[in-house]
Structures are given as structure tokens and as C-alpha cells.
Amino acid sequence: MVTAFAPGKCILFGEHAVVYGQPAVAVSIDAGVEVTISESSRWILEGKPFEPSRHPHISHIINDIFEYTGRPLEIDIKSELFSAAGLGSSAALSNSMGAALHHFVRPNEPLDLISLARIGHSAEANAQKGRASPTDTATSALGGCVVVSGDRVKGTQHFFDATLETPEGSRSWSISKVELPEIEDVWLVLGFTGIGSPTGDMVAGVSELLKSDPLKMKEIEAIGEITYSGLRALSSGNMEEVGHAMNECQERLRKIGVSSPELENLISATESHSLGVKLTGAGGGGCMVSLTRNPQRVAECIEIAGGRPLVSKFGSGGARIVIEEN
Ligand code: MEV
User: Are 96 and 319 in contact (CB under 8 A)?
Assistant: First the structure.
């Protein structure tokens, strides 16, 4: 039996724009997904017969990536993440499944986090009709603060490159990490609107918007500029500037139509206690994120406004094996 954990992620800057080669900055969060696999006489997922077509991420990893032909497996999933909420729950699921299966079939080979990030990206792309940046999967696999961009970004440590054939043509990204300075008294508070929002649909919506109104590409480019200034502020520990860049990013995300009344409700409920606040992930519904020195107060404001809060420190560890038993 083997159990693997992979964290969720919070995009601070650059969601959607990263699909078009602009930079994005994301951090891993404390909450994540744990997958346990063990040999069994039948294929079982969460106590029920496993139906591959209903679980594209998991079946892609078992059949296409590992080409697993061993004995049937029993798979259990424990998620601390709201699903379809912009916190990278499907990336964390793909990564924890990839890590657990890797350890199950090759127990003596150490887990290579870059290979794991590639496995996760392949599973996400497969499930999102070929449109997925490696942001969620790389942040969940590597942990810490991850920068994903069409070009190499100065001042970051390069880890690997990823390419993908999308319906709009071939895309490639450079994935790097940034060592954050000590961030003592600032937290992220995520607020779930309670409305699930599939990433694939939101990404397809932006693609439609850009086709019908090509001038909106200016907003995508502006998000790229804001992301660079947010990254500079983050690297130097200037959290007021980070918050300011988050607010500016939200302005542009509104203009590409990915905010919603429910997100705006949680944003306005928390902005007076936040250094910065914006939607995070694909938008539509899902989550907002507040950068704050007063996480308790922000969590209360989210609850009073009808949302569900989740408090996290910045950039905890990446994917890992947590239990193994023979
Ligand atoms: C989703 O967490 C982030 C998006 O930019 C999609 C992607 O990067 O694949 C909206």
C-alpha cells in the first residue's frame, strides 16, 4: 500500500494570460489531495467499481502514462480542497495519483518531481481538451513559489520546459522557481463562492472572447506586465506592492469576463482587511484570494458574506510519499 500527497495551489498573478504565453506566479498551499493505492481483486475507486471514462485524469495516468497491466488496484482519495474551485484540485489529484503509482510500480526509484509535473500536465491537458498550462501541476509537484511563462524569466531558477499541442497551435512554457524571503505576518485566505467552475469551460470562454474581440489581447498583455511587477515585489518581500498588483490584476480579469457577482461579493466583503484581493484560478465561480495581515478577520468576513474560507501560509512543500507499507 502506498499513500502520496500533493498540495493545491493559489495563483497570485497571471491566470488565463499564462495560457497565451504570459507569465504566471503561483504558490503551493497547505491543503491538498492524498491518494492511497493497494492491490485488490477488483478495480475499485472510493469503494465503488472504477469506471475509467468517469475519471479521465486517473485513467490517463494508469493506462497511457504508466501503461499499467498489473493486478487490479483499490484507489482511495482524500481531498482537503474545494473541487472545481480554482485551487488546483485536479492537478493535485493527478500528481498524488502519479506519485503513488510511481512508487507502487517502481518502489526503489526516487520520485522525480519534474517527471511528476509532466505526468500531471499531460493528465490535465487530456481532460481539458488540450488547453492547459503547466501552472497548476508544476506548482503542486514542485511546491514553493513557481513562475510559468512563455519565455525564461530573469531572477528565477529555471527547472524545466513544457510543450503542448493545443487547438490554437503549439504552446511552450518555461517553468522556474523563486526563493521567497521570510514572509512572517502575511497569510493567504481563500474564499470559496460555493460555485464550481470547470477550468476547461472558462479557458474555452476566454478563447472565444479573443476570437470575437481580438483587442482584448491587450488585457492579456497587461496581466503579463502586472505579473512581472508583482513578482518583483514578492521577491523583495514588499507585500503592500504585492497586494497592489493583485488588485490591478483583478481589474484586468474583470475585463476578460472571468469574474462573477459571487466572486465580487466576497472581494468587496474582504477588501478593507486585505493588502490585495482577487479571484484565483479560472474564475466564473470558484475562489477569491485575499493577501492579509489579519486572516481571522478576513475568514470571518468571507463566512458572513456566504463563502467558505481556507487560511494558508505561502508556498509549503510539493508532492511527496507519506505512507508506504509492504
Ligand atoms: C487555472 O487554475 C489557471 C488557468 O490559467 C488555466 C491554465 O493555466 O491551464 C485559468
Answer: yes
Residue 231 Cα distances to 54, 115, 174, 268, 314, angstroms: 38, 26, 16, 24, 14
What residues pair up with 266 in beta bridges, in sequence order? none
SS3 category, 141: helix
CB-CB contact of 41 with 241 (8 Å): no
The residues that bridge with 288 in the sheet, in sequence order, are 191, 279
The values of phi and psi at residue 114, to 5°, are -70, -45
Q: How far is the CA of 248 from the centre of ligand 1 (A)?
A: 18
Q: Is the CB of 282 under 6 A from ligand 1?
A: yes
Spatial separation of the C-alpha atoms in residues 283 and 291, rounded to whole Å? 17
**Interval between CA 123 and ligand 1 midpoint (Å):** 14
Out of 16, 25, 57, 249, mutate this one to test ligand 1's pocket (max ligand atoms within 8 Å of CB): namely: 16
pTM over 0.90: yes
Ligand 1 neighbourhood includes 137 CB (under 6 angstroms): no
Q: From CA 289, how far away is CA 28, in angstroms rounded?
A: 13
What are the chain's domains? 2-180+316-324 (3.30.230.10), 187-313 (3.30.70.890)
Q: Is the CB of 197 under 6 A from ligand 1?
A: no
Q: What is the pLDDT along the chain (326 residues), one digit of tens a residue?
A: 999 999 999 999 999 999 888 999 999 999 999 999 999 999 999 999 999 999 988 999 999 999 999 999 999 999 999 988 989 998 999 999 999 999 999 999 998 999 999 999 988 888 877 777 899 999 999 999 999 999 999 999 999 999 988 887 888 999 999 999 988 899 999 999 999 988 888 999 999 999 999 999 999 999 999 999 999 999 999 999 999 999 999 999 999 999 999 999 999 999 999 999 999 999 999 999 999 999 999 999 999 999 999 999 987 899 999 987 77
Give the CA angle between residues 121, 124, 130 to the nearest 5°: 100
Bridge partners for 290 per DSSP: 189, 277
